[in-house]
Amino acid sequence: MEKGRFLLLMMICCSIPQLHAQWDAPVTRYWTVKGHHNPAFAGSSEMTHFSLLYRYQWAGIRYAPQRAILNAHMPIDFLGRRHGAGVTAYSTTAGNLRNSLLAAQYSYILPTRHGNFHFGVHAGIHDLAFDEGSSRISGNDNQSTQPSYIVEGVKRQLPDLGAGIAWQGDNCYAGLSLLHLNQPSFQAQNDTLDLQSDSLKSIIPRNIHFMAGYNIRLSHSFAIEPMVWVQAGNGNTQLQTTLRAVVADRYSGGLFWRSGDGYGFFFGTTLEGIEFEYGYDHHTGGMGKLSRGSHELTLRYRFATERWSSKRQPQKSIRLL
Fold it and tell me: pTM of the predicted model, to two decimals?
């Protein structure tokens, strides 16, 4: 029954229009840092999670963006309830310009018979040096000129708020989040586009993220994980579907497709409890079509939360001495 519901959900998502998002650029292995896109996933298991993602986007284009995402979270107990706490950060560079975010995350966990509901919020600070929504590629008209990635400059620090809800079961998850709730606004210096105005007022638009995944164990040593990620914001929607296979809980690999952009593959392994994966994107549309593809590396480490808890030493009652 649960498998049928998941397949129906995948079919519904495939009917969504295929357009591009500007802020919150998509990544290939989104499930490794899903807490970055939805604070409700903080404390989503009994383990402490540490994830690092690095993306080298659009090889062959000068000043093309590079992105790093760090997400860490863990479950905690207080006041007789289970909660989740986490921190997320990212850094995106375009040439010598860099945008960054540092945010704290919290989730309230409500146990149910078949899983847990999570209600999360996050609050952080954006340090902006360029407007990611103004990006464009130039120089492609001349075959002898290497294309360049161009953006408008910004110099601002802005508060950023987000919220989400998620459901986590033994073999599946689903989450819906709304980021940039307060729509941070700024003045973008418009030197590169040579328009009439000296500056343009821009905002980071609200962005909706929906993620879902299912672990189908086909044998003791082999499992497949179909997953979907939908991003919607500023009138644009983008869908990404993934099929990942895991062998002996050690080797992994799979394929993905992103609407309006392209497709790719990834593979990895787990050594001493640390999971490594590499992926390659082949772009068939959008700005990435002029590039030689994108590369992505992820590192994920999970360990028992009890390592953070002090163990109570056994004591004898003086009545029994």
Answer: 0.84
